[in-house]
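Preliminary data (for renewal application), MGD complex.
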Amino acid sequence: MIIVDAMTNMHVQSRTCPLCEAMCGINVTVENDRVVNIRPNKDNVWSRGHICPKGTTLGELHEDPDRLRTPMVRIGGEWQSASWEGAFEHLAELAEGVRSRHGPNAFAAYGGNMGGKDSALSRYSGLMLGTSGIRQIFSSSTVDNHPKNLAAILMFGHEWKIPIPDIDNTELYLIFGGNPAASGGSIFAHPDVMGRIRDIRARGGKVIVIDPVRTKTAKAADQWIGLRPGTDAALMLAIAHVLFERDAVRLRHLDGLVNGIDALREVAARFTPERAAAFCGIDADVITKLADQWINTDRAAIYGRIGTCTQAFGTLASWMVDVLAILTGNLDRIGGSMWARPVAPLVEMLATLPKEMPVVMGKSRVRGVPAVLGQFPASCMAEEIATPGEGQIKGLVTFAANPVLSAPDPAKLSAALPLLECMVSLDNYLNETTRHAHVILPSPSLLESPFYDMWSWVFCLTSGGQYAPPLFDMGDRPEPWRVFARVGAIVGGNPDADLDALDDNYFRGLATKVSVDPDVAIEALPNRGQERILDLAIRAGPFGDRFGAVAGGLTLADFRAAPNGLIVSPAIPRAQEGFPTASGKIEIAPDLILADIPRLEEEMAKPPVQLVLVSRRHIRSMNSWMHNVDSLVRGKDRCTLHMHPDDAAQRGIEEGDRVAVSSQSGDIVVPVEISDAIRAGVVSMPHGWGHEDPLTRLSVAHAHAGANTNLLSPGTLVDAPSGNAVLNGIPVSVVLAGTQAATARVIA
Ligand SMILES: Nc1nc2c(c(=O)[nH]1)N[C@H]1C(S)=C(S)[C@@H](COP(=O)(O)OP(=O)(O)OC[C@H]3O[C@@H](n4cnc5c(=O)[nH]c(N)nc54)[C@H](O)[C@@H]3O)O[C@H]1N2
Ligand SMILES: Nc1nc2c(c(=O)[nH]1)N[C@H]1C(S)=C(S)[C@@H](COP(=O)(O)OP(=O)(O)OC[C@H]3O[C@@H](n4cnc5c(=O)[nH]c(N)nc54)[C@H](O)[C@@H]3O)O[C@H]1N2
Ligand code: SF4
Ligand SMILES: [Mo]
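Predicted structure:
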């Protein structure tokens, strides 16, 4: 922290914006305990002054009068502010009721996206889940990245061993289903993706975007391939087909390290460019040209993101992204895709799946679907709460999640949540989900927390880090890790557990996981809490001091002394380290994935659906939870349906008309924006809106409510192997609102 002026009590702190994976360095100026302004930090060694409009709103979030600062307890329909002790006691009473009436297995947990960014939640979810004994686990992973995790564990042996595109050194950047112009990049941390896209082109390289929508990213690229939603796997299999046919497969240094090439060749043989093209809604020629371009380019970086995950063939598409990197000799290679070497490898300590646990396990009680990587599909939760019988969910812990807006079938979930006998939410807002809780326990604001983005650096090919202590004092509230740990203990039936002992024990377990003697670790780091886990990760990581064993190795102290961050190393090839698969090699054709090919082929045989819905992001939104920031929601309504002019004309729809959009699961009414930057037959909606519920406390968001697009996402639509929600390619119909057809559908 730099003190600028002691007389006016003004100071500036350098931090990392925690809101997305771009990890922009910011300077926060505070005067008399209020944020005066937030500016990009040009001296931040990582982001060098890059920022977006959300980054400057952390002060507004901190000062938001709707942000919860004390625990809240709901008695009947009335919310009351409570003391921490009072809230814990109330929770313990309700939890004990559930345990005594329904047994210890009646509890479930749902973790959300900000759980990765909240310093305490991200590091202590293992402790909370362990002490609570919760087995039914749900999270935003199954409305996001589960297919990528499944492909990664089956191919490379670890669910987070996900290849990242090296766009700083590539000649050809292929983006399937990602729009970094809006999202900032995802499962791929880079400070300025759009700037780098310009650089690739400036040095003579090419950028190709494969997306049903001609997004801002596509507009900045050399080529846009506007395929039909849900067809990426077929397109990529056809590219593999061409590579095999041209005898152009080149494994380079991975030769001898890859199992299953023959099985893959057999599958790819069936996917001719002509056959795939008909399904993808593009010319066969586009596919062969793309394959040839890849063959003739030395270094190509392929990247697939949420458009390739939250679709009907998410696992197949995610798998093929990595398959093509391997077949073209671009995996584990500079300018291709590489594995990160995070300074503080959180995921190695917190791998969600214990080694001995099978990847696919058990069956959900109601729908009979397996837990994949320890998690049931998010869309199962409502039916598990609502359906009576042995094993019914009666108690729920949510943390940093808003599934009523973010998950499929929200009407079912909103109807089910009131049936719970004990629901506790760790969240900073009384929102569409937490309003159903009995107890809400707020986390500190993002500026009251210490921050080192352990999560995003995991997806970054530059090894580095930045640490900032809390900017504001948390007052006399309990340390956030104690709150989370105590929730776990209460749910686990041990409300008076010794939290210090729990933490020491947990910390010892983490040390063991990263091959550090727990006695050595605990002696060196006696101060409990989230910082010591960070310090352990840094010390045990690839650049760490290993508690004195590596001279000059890093510790947290090095980051405390470097407010502009530290860059330690670029990425290096890692295949020679081996793979934690059973064979020790890359499995390019896992049985579980190949078993899904017939489902794809069945779909290819069907006639295409007339109109399908996809999702889109906007730079000024963050999923569902930043619409309470006035400066971000002011201006033009963003919760609109985008539609191609031909589709609009066919339906007599004009710019600005209100339309009724219907799917198998529900209906919404929204204004339309007509644009040719979308494929005909495809419409798009943003998610995270629908803030009309009067029982929330989100005054700004409420005034800009919009509609919840996930009412249109049927919970039964999942990517079969992973259980991930299908949020793109949903069959819909669109008619002018208020017409007879619309009224009939909305009433039905
Ligand atoms: N401003 C902002 N930034 C965010 C977020 C946010 O809400 N707002 N959310 C954060 C989170 S949680 C995530 S996971 C990331 C996501 O980051 P991205 O993956 O970049 O997300 P989107 O911008 O939604 O881009 C997805 C693209 O996939 C396309 N698409 C849809 N269906 C298909 C398909 O079948 N095939 C192909 N090839 N493309 C398809 C869509 O048209 C869209 O352009 O963003 C993060 N960053
Ligand atoms: N149709 C459609 N639906 C989608 C998507 C899509 O593209 N299309 N994208 C999906 C994706 S990728 C994701 S990741 C999910 C996100 O799904 P969720 O994680 O369920 O939703 P968020 O809106 O990110 O909710 C974050 C919650 O965390 C709270 N919060 C914010 N900061 C903190 C903090 O520091 N501590 C605590 N304890 N709480 C905090 C907020 O108040 C909010 O309740 O949405 C998914 N839903
Ligand atoms: S791009 Fe992401 S990290 Fe950077 S300021 Fe915006 S939200 Fe924050
Ligand atoms: Mo996400």
